[in-house]
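Posting for a labmate who doesn't have an account.
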Amino acid sequence: QLVESGGGLVETGGSLRLSCVVSGHTDSHYGMAWFRQAPGKEREFVAAITWSSSTTDYTDSVKGRFTISRDNAKNALYLQMNDLKPEDTAVYYCNAGPGTTLTGPRPYWGQGTQVTVSS
């Protein structure tokens, strides 16, 4: 089970930190990722991280503004979002499990947390 938190309403240029706590499958060395889905759009990849945190990847639109990290001792995944823009408004989903590529979707999803950036 994946449970996200930390979403909310913020002004343009503001910051938020999303968290995702994982229960079950915690002994598996999975990569994890964040995806987002804006109204009327398909779900898209945002950021991913390997189990060891040695490798991360980001979609171009968030590079330099977002930072993904994880704490395996706490079974937690984070997304620090700085300099937020209205186009970052979306429901953000935590994603985990076995995968063939770092940035591809994995089988386990959280319920999502809403991020709204006002202009």
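Reply:
Got it, the structure tokens are right above this. The chain has no helices and eleven strands.
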